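Protocol step 6 of 9: fold each sequence in the batch and record its structure tokens directly after the sequence line. For illustration, a two-sequence batch is reproduced in full.

Sequence one:
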Amino acid sequence: MELIEKYFSNLSGSQIDQFNSLQHLYSDWNTKINVISRKDIDHLYERHVLHSLAIAKIISFKNDTSILDVGTGGGFPGIPLAIIFPECKFHLVDSIGKKITVVNEVSKALQLKNITTKHARVEQLTNKYDFVVSRAVTSFPEFYQWVRQKINTTSVNELKNGIIYLKGGDLNEELKDFFTKVRIIRIADFFEEEFFETKKIVYLPI
């Protein structure tokens, strides 16, 4: 938790309480449904929570912004972002039902009123959103094909509506068809921990 406060110093008391609760909630649920790898559960705040919150370092979503989290798994990046941006609307989807079960239970325990969920593939969704976020669920070109029709055309945030994708490694080949529009931001520019050295945010306005 100290790691979160190190980089986000303006949290309210309720936000601190919510973040503090994550370790117990995920450790407990992980014994029933394995949504986080065994080796990662001890590094929850660094490898999952803070990694998700890197998005909050490139954009401060305005109130009522709608965000779709695709392939959310156990709720990342959606749940940490929903804590940071309580006045925004988050819709978390995953094709694996037991993962959505965990998301629902964690959201309920945290009393997050700004999260809705769906057990579905993203292709089945009919609504549109201001932003689509995700953590490396597939190659970026494939992800783009999945979600490009799901994004509202009218933007109200400082960044134009689009895709915000968390991905690691060398992305040159994967992003070669998007180079004229895409922005690649190194997470190590915000967070000094070694884990983030190869991690990036890919932002593509739509």
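Sequence two, same batch, same settings:
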Amino acid sequence: MTHEHDTAEAARGAANQGAPDGAPESASDTAAESAPNTALESAPDTAPAGGAPAEEAVGPEAEPVAEDTSESTDHERQLEHDLEELSAKAEKADEYLELAKRTRADFENYRKRAAREAAAAQERGVAKLAKELLPAVDNLDRALEAAQSAAASDGGRGAGQDNGTTTLMSGIKLVHDDVIAALARAGIEGFSPEGEKFDPQQHEAIAQHPVEGKESGTVIEVYQRGYRLGELVIRPARVVVAA
């Protein structure tokens, strides 16, 4: 073993003496030193640390894009659905508003019509009552005229008789005035159209006489006064007209 070792050392020494200065000691050492550097330079920079292929790193990045597109589509559909619901509700609101307006207009028309009908019914009731009372008023008028005539004819007689006639006249006149006042409070008023132009809507001609100085168609005498309630003639005045 000692002889073989010495022989190997002598061979390496001879080889070192024959090589130029600065040259590598052997070709094998040079190849060993340069091999690691060449392998590092030729290796791709983008290789993953775990040794997985580069194509596998691209795959997971494509999936979030598809998910975002799907979410955007669902959101747009939801918005369209919400808009359709809002439009339908707006149309319903317009229909309800129009119905409310029509109902209000109908109610206002009904209220006005009911008020007119109530006023007309009240007017008819007052007119009917007045027609029932007017004969009594006419009788009071005649009684008052008779009492006045009696008082005028008894003017030259005793004071006791005159006092009785005056008392009767006062009583009749008091009742007459009360009845006329009650009719006036109900809106009924009497009219006596003497000297006016004859109007068939308000007058009733019972006679016609030619009168000098009077225009034809003029009322020259009122036989019975008329009564009216506003524009409604309850009873026309009975008159004598100039021919």
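Proceed to step 7 once all outputs are recorded. Observation for sequence two: The chain has a mean pLDDT of 74.
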